[in-house]
Specification:
Largest sheet: 2 strands, antiparallel
Number of strands: 2
Shape: globular
Number of helices: 13
Strand content: under 5%
Radius of gyration: 19 Å
Number of domains: 1
Distance between the termini: 29 Å
Order of helices and strands: HHHHHHHHHHHHHEE
Structural class: mainly alpha
Length: 300
């Protein structure tokens, strides 16, 4: 199967109208592993903003129930691009996301920053470690996909271009990255969870490998020890060697869904999208976007 299959298919689509299909092709077929890893790192970066990391620590969601919260986040974020924003599944997932967020006093600036990580971090990951970068069409579709997600979440002043998202992320991190004990606890818990996705003898090397892929401002914000030049060189060389191998493998023809990944462990018997995530405090917040009530059940 030609290695250009998905790039050619995506470039034949219109990123202004077909952005959900293009993003689906990227996340489910072309870069399923890369998107899983890079989006995990994207969320990880948000913990280094004290207002975000401290809140997550106070809720206890990513410390006491980190596996389930990791699973819920991945499954809820996947539903809109697998099924579409206007599908029953997409609406149910968005309602749950909005209910959770609106239960807390989260600034629009923090929402905008988190959204920017979903656009910028995967693009930079593929530039550094992917077997190819995103095409201009794919990048524009990614921007449009997350602009649509922002609209459904009621986020204001969402950037219109990739450069806008990039500058938002870089400026926000320069202004806000800082050490916070709560953010550090959430980061430690998440990093420990990520090591459990691998056999026990590999867990310490995976932890060092993960730190070696982190930039210095992120390490400093968490108070993490610099892994050293050798660890950085070996880790990045391994990632680039993987990319070179993938350039000579066939295009993937079978989708990879989040629920099928072995790291998703909380729902072996299936799950109901409406039941995922934490529950809001009664009488506080709610979904900022109106949707008709629907119940959607998915099987893992």
């Amino acid at each position: 199967m030609a290695k250009t299959l998905w790039r050619d298919r995506n470039d034949a689509l219109d990123p202004e109208t077909d952005y959900v299909e293009i993003y689906q092709n990227l996340a489910l077929y072309e870069f399923s592993w890369d998107f899983t890893q890079s989006l995990s790192f994207a969320l990880f970066r948000t913990y280094a903003v004290p207002s975000i990391g401290r809140l997550l620590d106070e809720t206890g969601a990513f410390t006491r129930q980190v596996q389930q919260r990791y699973d819920d986040t991945a499954l809820l974020l996947e539903a809109p691009f697998v099924h579409g924003f206007d599908s029953a599944e997409g609406k149910t997932a968005l309602r749950r996301i909005n209910e959770m967020h609106k239960a807390y006093d989260i600034s629009n600036d923090d929402f905008r920053y988190v959204l920017s990580t979903f656009v910028v971090v995967p693009k930079r990951w593929l530039d550094d470690y992917g077997w190819r970068p995103l095409s201009d069409t794919e990048l524009r579709a990614t921007v449009n996909y997350y602009r649509a997600l922002g609209r459904h979440m009621g986020i204001k002043d969402v950037p219109e271009t990739y450069d806008g998202f990039m500058h938002l992320l870089d400026d926000y991190e320069r202004a806000h990255f800082d050490f916070d004990a709560g953010g550090r606890r959430v980061a430690d818990s998440t990093l420990a969870l990520m090591t459990t996705f691998y056999p026990r003898p590999l867990r310490k090397p995976v932890e060092v490998f993960s730190r070696a892929l982190m930039d210095q401002p992120l390490l400093d914000a968490f108070g993490y020890v610099e892994p050293g030049p050798l660890a950085r060189k070996v880790s990045r060389a391994a990632m680039r060697a993987r990319a070179r191998v993938l350039r000579h493998t066939p295009s993937n023809r079978r989708p990879v869904y989040t629920a099928d990944l072995p790291r998703i462990k909380s729902y072996p018997g299936g799950y109901d999208l409406a039941d995922l995530g934490t529950r809001p405090v009664p009488g506080v917040g709610g979904c900022p976007v109106r949707h008709a009530p629907e119940a959607v059940t998915a099987q893992a």
